[in-house]
Amino acid sequence: QVQLVESGGGLVQPGGSLRLTCAAPGSLFGLNAMGWYRQAPGKERELVAHITREDTTYYADSVNGRFTISRDKPKKTLALPMNSLKPEDTAVYYCNAHVTVPYQRNYWGQGTQVTVSS
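Structure (tokenized):
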């Protein structure tokens, strides 16, 4: 099973910063859009940020202006610097990759925990 690998989660105080990263296997072809999702306890998974192959970005209203999504296409990595973190940002963050070669499918990472607490 192909999986993405997230890193960078941890415990941070409100107002602090973290940088999440996601790495896709080098053998994975056809990466199209990639994104970050999160799931807090008792809540459904939600889209945090998304970036297309053409580098068009989307942010959830709750994180817009605080988080930034970027990708390094040669390295097949995805990053999410997060600033001004709030307790409500506490969640498990998952990396997603939409792949189109040889057929359309999605891959996910196992998640990285982000906890914002004083």
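The radius of gyration is 14 Å. The chain is about 0% helix and 50% strand.
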